[in-house]
Amino acid sequence: MREKVKPEEKAEANELAPACPAWFEVPIGPIHPALKEGIRFTFWIEGERIRKVDIRPGFMHRGIEFMGTKRNLIQVLYLAERICGICSISHPLAIVQAVEQAAGIEVPPRAQYIRVIIGELERIHSHLLWAGVAAHELGFDTLLHYVWKVREPVLDLLEDLTGNRINYAIPIYGGVRRDVPPEKYPVLKNALRYYRSLVDDFVNFFLRDPSIEARTRGVGTLTREEADALCAVGPTARASGLRKDVRQDWPYFAYPDLGVRAITPEDMGLEVRGDVYDRIVVRLLEVVQSIEIIERCLEEMPDGEITAFPKVAALLAHLKKAEGEGIGRHEAPRGEVIHYIRLQADEEAPVVWKVKAPTYSNLMPWYPMFRDQEIADIPIVAASIDPCICCMERVQIVRGGKEETLWKEQLLELSWAKTRRIVRGLNPARAARHASRGGADERR
Amino acid sequence: MRAEEVLAALRETLGERLRNPEVRAETVGYRRPRERACLWAEIDREDLLEAVRALKELAPLHISIISGADVGDRIELIYHFGVGYGTETGEVMVNLRLTVPKDNPVVPSLCGVLPGAQTTEREKIEFLGVEFEGIPDARKLFLPDDLPVHPWRKDEPELAGYVRRTVAWEEKGDEGKGEA
Q1: Of chain A residues 221-280, which have a CB less than 8 A from chain B?
Q2: For position A347, what pLDDT does the model report?
Q3: A393 has a pLDDT exceeding 60
Q4: pTM of the model
Q5: Domain coordinates in residue numbering, chain B
Q6: Residue A25 reports pLDDT greater than 90
Q7: Does domain B3-142 have CATH number 3.30.460.80?
Q8: Mutate to test the interface with B, among A228, A354, A360 (most CBs of B within 10 A)
Q9: What is the pLDDT of residue A389?
Q10: Buried b (16+ CB within 10 A) or exposed e, B81-109
Q11: Could you give all domains of chain A from N- to C-terminal order, each with its CATH number?
């Protein structure tokens, strides 16, 4: 399926590129329909280097906010859960805060702890999912399969606690829908012990592996100043040295009791460079942090009610009378989620509902990250902010009016070949043999 | 950063032009209760840049989102800023509300002060038909290039019909049935 570009759009796209005859235009994307977010990158390439990039999202816009203003608030909650398939609890956690603020609902403490537990379990599974994707983009499929194998127990645990592997339907306005009963604590603690035992392996596989370091150090760099000016969020901002974490800055639920601190590579004794490697560091440390948070929750969680409105009918009646506005923010695995909601008395549907997902804020930081990178680094740089897209189904190269298509496999092959070159370069024996043969320097 | 400090800084910059400022404080946490605050205020579009510069001077500034709504013959925009991230409970959510008339929906762009605002401003252009003066890139972001309507406007004559055509399954309910 080739992308159809109307002549006038083409002209507009070309205007973006400063006239430089040596630059090639390389569009990547827009979509792979199996993924929840499609996006089109247009790169202007000089040789192997990216000189300019244009990003066009919007291929998967579903108009959820528009739909939300036509439904009652309970329906909106379930709709919000379906905004993101990976961090499916992040949006419900944000919208319940917004509605609770707008309607003045007090939430029982136990419910706030349960929300934290599920939210942190989700962070563990999401970061592991990302680690697998990153390994795949670099050509380490063994690591991908290993990471995704060890990710299964946390999904099983979530299923055990909530009934679902994804879309847990746990938060509701005023509390949560299911308790985490004390008889489940041993299962939870077991799982946490298991992940704790894996941390050393992860550090070895990801942070001490010379080829991963060679592929990610100095790649996709986002400086601290750029991250601040472009309002980056989540691990992307923290890897650039900004201590920015909603759980710390503007705490909610039980987080103020848990004393969460934003993590940067400095916490591992590393100098902050803001590259892809640093983003791996931050995410791995956050898995450890999540384990600690859940352990503390299990110790400190008080007994008591789990919802302010045991009957949904009473909740709906209360919401129908409610009038006001509220904002809810949550630190999702990828960064800040914010919901703004406005309720009007005698209206079941919210009058205004605005949603912001983390990738929205991390769109602008992509521009400096791609600057002067190599084509083979596109997959890992794109994946490094953990966008909800992995949609590089094909690349089309337009050269002198002739079109060539590079499929995803070829693009990945380019990436893997670069890894192989680097690995060979790292092996001194091979490098010496190579040099003695007088062969071309494959490392470039 | 405390909400009162932010309010004082905004007052100093805008004076009487800062209307209906309101600090909404909440207590969060159980074992170690903390206070967390939102500041809500109304301003005019002419004062927006000045206000944002004052916030930026005060503390690290993050723009979360601009939310918007069609309120009759005007369009309302609410700028949600996080002021002072980086320390525990140190962030104040500052929500600045302004309205613009529909026949002249022009607002100064924040991109010169805060380049990260570009994504959300581009979204407001296509969804509400607001114009941002000085935005470096005003192309469509999320919606198709040939979409003729601004979906969040309530006075778009073509909107209901467009929605009906594109999402026919939505007709199941009573919404939008007899419209357009």
Answers
A1: 228-233, 242-244, 246, 248-257, 259, 261-262
A2: 87
A3: no
A4: 0.84
A5: 3-142, 148-180
A6: no
A7: yes
A8: A354
A9: 38
A10: bbbbbbebbbbbbbbbbbbbebeebebbb
A11: 7-60+374-436 (no CATH), 64-360 (1.10.645.10)
